[in-house]
Every structure is written in C-alpha cells, then in structure tokens.
Input
Amino acid sequence: MRAIALTVLATLVLLGAARQPAGAQSTKPVSEDTVHEVAAQLRCVVCQNLSVADSPSEMASQMRAIIRERLAAGESPAEIQRYFVDRYGEWILLSPPRRGFNLLVWLLPVAAVVVGLTATCALVWRWTHRPRRARPSPAAVDAAMSERIRREMERGS
Amino acid sequence: MKRIWRWLIPLAAVPVLALLAYGFRVSPRDIPSPLVGRPAPAFALDTLDGAPWSLEAHRGKVVVVNFWASWCYPACYEEAPVLERNWRGYRDRGVVVMGVDIQDKREAAQKFVGDLGLTFPVAQDPKGTVSVDYGVYGVPETFFVDRRGRIRMKHVGAVTDEVFRATVDGLLAEPASP
Amino acid sequence: MTPELGYGMTLVALGLAVYGGVAAGVGARTGRLALIESAQHAALGVFALVTSCFVLLTYAFLTFDFSVRYVATNTNLGTPFYYRITGVWGALEGSIILWAWMLSVYTIILIARHRLGARELYPWALATMLCILAFFLLVMTVAVPPFQRQTPVPADGRGLNPLLEDTGMITHPVALYLGFTGFTVPFAFAMAALITGRIGDTWLVLTRRWTIVAWYFLSLGLLIGGWWSYHVLGWGGYWAWDPVENAAFMPWLTGTAFLHSVMIQERRRMLRLWNISLVILTFGLTLFGTFLTRSGVIASVHAFSQGSIGILFLSFLALVLLTALGLVAWRWDALRSEGELDAVVSRESVFLLNNVMLVAAAFTVFFGTVFPLLSEAVRGVKVSVGAPFFNQVNIPLFLSLVFLMGVGPLIAWRRASLDNLKRNFLWPVALGIVAAAAAFALGVRSLLAALTFATTVFVAVTIAVDFTRATRARLRMGESLLPAMGGLLLRHNRRYGGFVVHLGILIIALGVMGSHAWSVQTETTLHRGEAAELAGYRFRFDGLSAVEESNHFKVVGAFTVSNGRPLGVLRPAKKFYPQEQAPIAYVDYRLGLREDLYVVLGDFASDGSQATIKLQVNRLVSWIWIGGVVLTLGALLAILPERHKGA
Output
C-alpha cells in the first residue's frame, strides 16, 4: 500500500517537475532556416511585394530579429504569424489565409484548369465523333506511294 | 447559339474594367490599422537624455505616440514643428507627446532634435520592437492614445495642427475612467 | 526653346496620326487608294516627328538642359554620361515616348512589308496601328508630356533613380517594350481580318514572324528583368511575382499559347475563334500591363506614378476590348466553324492541352494580381497575394507544360498510332524514370525536384531522339555528319528552331528548380576578422571603407571568400544618394555554373568594427541565363526565311 502511494507521489512530483513553471522561458537554439521559413510568409512592409526573408531593408532586418527572438522564446511559427497579423492585419501575410472569401483565389485557378480540361475533352470528343461528310472516293493510289505518305505523316515534320 | 447571346462576349470585359476602375478610389498603401480601438501596446524606452519613459506611467493622460526618423524627408521635418507647438500648448492639460525614432543612428536623432528645438520626450527604438508592436509600416505615423490607454486614431503621414487639435480635444473631453 | 519645340512636334504628330488612322479607314472602306497612300505619308511623318522628339530629348539629357522638367527630375550634374542616355526612358514620360517611337517604327515596317502583299487587310491594319499610335501620342500631349518647361530653371537636377544606374537599363525596357508593342501588329491584322470578314488564314500567315519576334523580345525582356533584379536589387532573387512582373508575364503566357495554336489553324483550319480571341487577349494584357505600371492602382516596386494617366489607359483598354470583342461577336457565325479531329491521341490534342494550361496559368496570375483589389471591394479588407501563392498554384501547371513540350513535337498529327508512340517515347519515358531514380539515389528528397528532373530528362531525350533519327536518315542518304546536321537545321528551321527554344526553356526550368530547391542562406553579424560559414564557403569580414562618387556616397564592405582555397574578395556596398531617403544596398556576387555566392550588406557600425550581412549560396541560377541564350538562338533559327524544302 505504502509502495503504491509512494510511487504515485513520486510520479506526480516528477511530472510536476517536468512541466516548465509558468514564466520561465526556455531558450531554444534557432536555426536560420526556420527564421527564413517564417519570414518568407510575411510581407515586408516597406518594400513592394517582397517577403521579410528576402528584403534587404532595415525594417525587414529588424522584423527578422524579432522573429528570431520569438522563436528562441519558444513561440511557434503560427503564433508568430498571428502576432504580426494582430498588428498589421491580414495584409502582412504574403499568401491569403485559406478562409472565407480568400478561398476564391485558391480555388478559382483550380476550377479554371478543370473547366478548361473538361471543355477540351468535350470538344475533342465531339470533333472525333462527328459523322464524316461523304468524301469523293480518292484516286487510285499505289501501295508504295501510300506507304511514303504514311511515313511522312507520322514523322510529322 | 441564339443571336443575342453572342453580345455577352464584349460585356464579359465590363466587370474586370469596373474592378480596375474601383482601384482608383483606394490607395494600395493605405493600410487600416487593426489596433485602433484596442489597448495600446505597452513599451518602455530610455529617452535621448537618458531618462526612463514608459507608457504605463502616463495612464490617465492623452498620449500622442509619434514614430519618425531623421532620414524621413520632408514629412518628418514638416510635422516636428507642429508636434512641438502643440506639445507646448497642451502639456499642462494632461497631454503627452512621445517621439519614437526608428532605424536611425543616435547622432542623427540628436541632430534632428537639436536642429528643430524639440522639447518633448524622444526615445530611440533601436531593435524596432516597439514599431513592429504598433504595426508601423512607414514614417511618419502617429497614434493617439486616450486616457484609458486605448489607441483611438492612427494618422499616417505628417500630422497637421488641425488633425492634432481636433483629435486631442475630442479625447480630452472623455473621462479618465470608464 | 526645347520644351516648346518638343511639345509642338508631339502635337503635330498626334494630329497626323489621327488623320492617318481616319484616312486609312475611310480609304479601306471606300477603296480610294489615294487616301491610303495619304495615310502612309502621314505615318511616315509621325515616325519622323517622334524620332525627332526622341533625339531632342536625348540631346536635352546630354546637355543638362534643366529647363525641361523631365531632365531636371531624372538627372543631375553628377549623372554619368552613359546613364544620361539610358535615363531618357528611365521614368514615366520617357517610357511613353519610347513606346510611341517603337510603335511608329513597327508601323513603317508594316507599310514596307505588307502594302503590296495584303491588299484587303493592309489598310485596316494600318488604320488600327495609327489609331493606337494616336492614343500614345495623346498620352504624351495631355497626361505626361516629356517636354514640360521647368520654371525656374534649377541649377542642378534631382538625379536618376539609383537602381536604374545599371546596364540592365538599356536592355530591359527596350526588349520588353519591343515585345509589348510587337504584339500590336498581329492584333492590328486580327482587327483587319474581323472588319473585312477575311478571317481565314491570311492574317495568321502574314503575322507569323511578327508573333515570333514579339514573343522573343518579351521573353528576353522578362529574362533581363530577372537578371537585373538578381544582381541589382539585393534580395537574391530574380522573380518576385510583383504585380508589374505579372503584367508582363501574362501576355507572354497567352502569346505562347497563341504561337502554338496558330499551328493547328495552319494545318487543320480549326480554332479560328480561339486564335482571334487569344491575340485580342494578348494585346489587351499588354495594355493592362502598361495600365498597372502607371496607374498606381496596385502597389508595385515598378510603379512609376499615379495620376490621370491611369484613367486614360483604363479608358483606352475599355475601348479596345469592347471594340475588338464586339467585332468578334459580330463575326461570330463565320468564326465558329466546327472542328474535326481524327483521333484523341494526336498532336492537335496535345496543343489544345498546352493552350489550356497556358491560359489557366495566365488566369491564375491575373486573378492573383487583382485579388487584393477584389477583396477590398467586397470585404473591405486588404490582403496580399504574393510569391507563396503564385509558386504553389503555378508550379504544377508549368511542370505539366514542360512535359507537354516533350510530347508535342514528336507525336503525330491527326492520329498517333501505337507504333508511333512506342518509337518516339519509349526511350524518353525510360530515361525519365531512370533520371528520377538517379535523383533519388543521389539524395534528392524533394518530390518536386525529382519530378522536374525526370520531366526535363524526358523532354531532352525526345529532342535528342528526333534529331538523331533525322540526322541518321540524312547520313544514310550519303551526307556527312556536320552538313547533315546543319542542313537539317536550316531546311526545317521552324521545327528545329522550336526545338532549340524548347531546349532553352528546359535549361531555364532546371535553373529555376535548382534555385528553389537547393539554395541556402543565412544572416549574421560579424566583427572585423570574424568569419561566417555557409555551404562549405567561408566569408571573412575584413572591414569597411567609405568612397565618394560623382553623385553618391558609398560604404563598401570587404569579405574574403574561400572554400579551402581562396576565391577572392566580395565587396557589397550601401550607397547613399542625396535624393533618396533610404540607402540602397548593392550586392556583390560570384557567379558560377553550379552555384552563386551572394553577399548583401545590412546594418553596420559607424567605425567599421562590425557588420550584419545576409549570405546566400544560390544553386543553378546561371542556368537561367544560359537558357536565355539558347532561347535566343532558337528564336533566330525559327525566324530565318524558309528554304526551299528539298527531298
């Protein structure tokens, strides 16, 4: 009985110790690649259309430093994105979030391809299955000539 | 296909043209700030004179936070006298003007302050954390914070006397506690 | 004197262009040759006047004539001689005059080439060209006159935008505009075809070379723009999906579709409606491009300025689209001929697929570019649509296009038999799969990179298969190797020109894949003497130096690079121009076949003790430029006059 209680107590203590006490920040080593990934999704606010990762401007450099700090403090890329969106609005994301009205810009191109392919298939089908007009019977063509014609057409030049 | 439907083809161009025409009414650089109406992010910086300054310490007053830079020409040079003038006029009525200098060297900032004779507190934001916290995307930008610590207005570009007075007068008329 | 003279010439040119357009149209309608000839003379007059304006403006630049506002805004006494010439088209007004000049040149060439050959179409084509020219001259007189007087005359000008002080300036806008304006001629002939009702193949055959030339220059303009972005703008990339880049890319996409679908019309007399629509769409997109660049409606790094010019361009775009599409609707019955295909598996189908993919890509780019505007109109919320979106949606499209590039040339017209398919595609498919496996074995784990690799090998082998087989056929007939290959290229120059162009695209595709999948970068702050490592290269910070140039002040950092053995010193700089607010970063780089080293100077301490730098090792980017050279050779080959086809 005592053994079980002690084990349970020990486990609880160990679990309690394993969880970081609130307020203590863990400093994770941050790879530049991760910073680059996060920064590549954000729009540099002083440039036109460049990402924070790419922009050589000083503002972008400062934003990258902020990203680096936040990653080191344990924030996830999604949280960092949310931080920037809170401050600048949806505009700061280089790719519109796939929600609501923005789905239009993601889906419409796919729809365009689908519609195009479907239309093409339908047209090709119709064009290859048309009842052929009666053609005048061709003049007699000898075998060698038709063989040459066939090869010529297949070469397609 | 009936004869009439073919005339839809030229009409198909109209929505696109209308959308482009709409573009004339909006400016692509005009980004509305999501911070308006929300509590102003707290920050604490040391002024150029070395004194500590924090936003929290001025709760209960109307705070005008102005982001500027010495390389921001001509707008920041145009609005600095406006800010100075109004600072002197309103400081006894519970209004504080704070100039946050971004992406600048210390000497350039001090020269700016000295040349234009600015007396309101000015601090540098060396790492840009405050400017990003406020969603600043260019200079100059000015945030008007009410007595309860909420951002009520963001003005992009050089501030004018009219804008300053109209906004600050309105905010001063409000009570300090909810 | 100069401003007034220039303005006067522009006005006269405008009047002549309007007169010529009307005269040619009336002459075409009533059959009065005298009017058409009068229109030709008017066109000649316009060409002479616009050329004189151009020369006058250049002269004003070279002599520092600051009484002309355009000169005062775009040069100062320190601007080097070279850039005083290229600066003529460096800003908005100059770009319009360049465009108008090119249009007038093309009009003269059109007159010279076609006035005897295309009796029915020619007058209407001339009328269209002159009307479009008149519009640009109108813009030059009303909205952005290059010859405005600057009072008082300043002692010194403002100076050229420093980013424009680069050799890219003489080639990028010129090539791009040659491409844009080049598509005006096929459009003019399409209009002529619609108006006269001669919507058969005549207009296509006449404009074939024009289309290739315009397409080529547009490709060249895009590639040079990429090169310029890569080595000047300091962000280590060559394409940012910036709205104005997209605006030039869209007509390229539809132009490529047009290039291919005309081949179907030439052979099978089908797709007339589609081809006319494509050429109208392409020309419309070129106008849309100039509208975007100049109206400020969508923010872009290229945007010249805002103002009334945007409204002018939008109105003209509306006029062109409504008129052209109205003509299409009018001629609907005649255009809609039922097509006939022999088999589903045939070159015709492949070309149709090619068109679908290209137009879908153009639509994607278009919709992504205007979506921010749409979102604001509908939701009131501004969003950004940038590189991550365009890359994600377009890359599958482009990959399938590359694949089709391999299938198209070899599959038979009309009906591809199983034998034909086996003969042509067995080796390419096999080697493509082997290539994918090899890539995997060599450590490539990105699915996209492996697919791209496999597809490019597939296409390359198809080209090799065709070329070897054809050469071997000629060898069998007794020719020796080099004459066989050369003769093949020259006698079937359209086909092999196309092959070489495809080869160029392949090389570019490989370069794009390499740079996307395998480039690495890092950012770090170094003290003097410290070194950073990236991808096996060592960058040691040696110090900073300050240099005063004629019109700017620059801080240069010195970085010794080595990868075991010393590779030299890279000197990225930050240039401070008095007329610009923020300093401009200039990269230094070391190009190589496999990888480029790229260093950007960021923040630095005033005493030079430390500097923040961005390092990049970009892979395979040089292949993009090499691909461009190959593309040029292919286009040249394709344009050669047709030799008499022998046995």
Summary: The CA atoms of residues 24 and 37 of chain C lie 8 Å apart. The interface with chain B takes residues 291, 295-299, 310-311, 314, 317-318, 321-322, 325-326, 328-329, 332, 370, 372-374, 376-377, 382, 581-582, 606 of chain C (CB under 8 Å). Chain C has a mean pLDDT of 87.
